Amino acid sequence: MKTAVIGVGNMGGRYAVMLQEGMIEGMKLAAVTRLREKQKEMLAPSLEKGLPVYESADALFEAVEAGKLALDAVIIATPHYSHSSIAVRAFRSGLNVISDKPAGVYTRQAREMAEAADRSGCVFGMIFNQRTLPQYIFLHDLVQSGRYGALKRVNWVVTDWYRTNSYYASGSWRATWKGEGGGVLLNQCPHNLDLLQWICGMPASIQAFCREGQFHPIETEDDAVLYMEWENGASGTFITSTGEAPGVNRLEISLEEALIICENGEVRIGELEPELGCKEAEYRKNAVNPFRRINGTWKTMKFDKPDNPYRIVLQAFADEIRGSGTCVADGREGRKSLMISNAAYYSSWKEKKVVLPEPGSDAERLFEAEYEALLNEKIQAAEAGK
């Protein structure tokens, strides 16, 4: 399958090299756009053989539409704002699409991508590579199975996204509302927010506190605290920062019959029933000891990281196109993590709790419009302040 990589920077360069080296069975590199000097050296073998290079996604699609370039699929690795428009045009051209995270900057973009995919009948995937990590696959399957009952509480502290000032200074678009559309929640944390909803389900409401330029001289947030509630009454927090060191990545999930702790590739499960001899709710109701401490019966599992999660994601994309597998993450899933980050920004800016709208509802369309208006205000304020 002839595949183009649109946006050959750091990540796009990695994807292009994997295709060049034949690491994705059933796919070959057929074209690239926005090729940087460093990536020119990496792709020299393909360039010497005449690999087409286009200045923009528009130029590439014009070649496809004119019959000058034959393609089956595209990999999108451009800045956030352009993901949606590129994907929609690719679907209109009958091409399969896999996009780097996030699905866009605001949820309308993600919705339009999904709608275009539905109309085209083409394969649509998202590069949520952390879904390939075995500890998260295990947690997803375990929580969704209901083995330990319903969700009570979830707490995730993700402060191992540390970045220096030079990172933000490496590109004028970085950590700006106009160029990137957000900070740590939109750049680093789409992976974590995707995993959060994949494992625990979508929260029903969010109250967020996003601190802009707390640790770096940037427009957007580099520190965020989200308080969430689920339909069943469960609650949770999500805490992240790019300015804390040494940092931690610790996920705790409290279920009706167990506590699960995930950290450093290790999952610990504290089961209640082996110790109590009954369900916790029953024990709580009938116990005569008012102060007994329940320790749980613990077991530990360790998981190894896959050698190349990105290869797994791209291979699954290729397999779905060939009819022999499914994407690691369907592209429509990108809308969910983006809704969480959009709701968090909205909540922080308006200083109020946000109830997440139902997908496809009038409330969702209203939220989309209100959020985009607020984002434009942030962009205008930032531009005025320069």
TL;DR?
The protein is of the alpha/beta class and 386 residues long.
What does it look like?
This protein has 386 residues and is of the alpha/beta class. The protein folds into 2 domains: 2-130 and 309-329, NAD(P)-binding Rossmann-like Domain (Rossmann fold), CATH 3.40.50.720; 145-306 and 337-384, Dihydrodipicolinate Reductase, domain 2, CATH 3.30.360. The chain is 39% helix and 22% strand. It has 15 helices and 15 strands. It has helices at residues 10-20, 37-42, 44-48, 57-65, 83-92, 107-120, 134-145, 165-169, 184-187, 190-200, 273-276, 280-286, 309-322, 334-350, 362-384, and strands spanning 2-6, 28-33, 53-54, 73-76, 96-100, 124-127, 151-158, 205-212, 221-229, 235-241, 249-255, 258-263, 266-271, 297-302, 354-355. Strands 14-13-12-11-7-10-9-8-15 form a 9-stranded mixed beta sheet. Strands 3-2-1-4-5-6 form a 6-stranded parallel beta sheet, with helices on both faces. Helix 1 links the parallel strand 1 (2-6) and strand 2 (28-33). Helix 5 (83-92) runs parallel beside helix 6 (107-120) and helix 7 packs parallel to helix 10.
The CATH homologous superfamily name of the largest domain equals Dihydrodipicolinate Reductase, domain 2
Using only C-alpha atoms, the radius of gyration works out to 22 Å
Mean pLDDT, to the nearest integer, reads: 97
Question: Major β-sheet, in short?
Answer: 9 strands, mixed
Query: Could you give the count of β-strands?
Result: 15
Q: What's the order of the H and E elements?
A: EHEHHEHEHEHEHEHHHEEEEEEHHEHHEH
Outline the low-pLDDT stretches: none
Query: According to CATH, what is the topology of the largest domain?
Result: Dihydrodipicolinate Reductase, domain 2
Number of domains: 2
Q: Tell me the structural class.
A: alpha/beta
What fraction of residues sit in β-strands?
15-25%
The first-level CATH class of the largest domain is given as Alpha Beta
Count of DSSP-assigned helices: 15
Which overall shape is indicated by the principal axes computed on the Cα atoms?
globular
Q: What percent of the residues sit in helical stretches (DSSP H or I)? A: 25-40%
> What CATH architecture of the largest domain do you see?
2-Layer Sandwich
- N→C terminal distance: 46 Å
Order of adjacent strands in the largest pleated sheet: 14-13-12-11-7-10-9-8-15
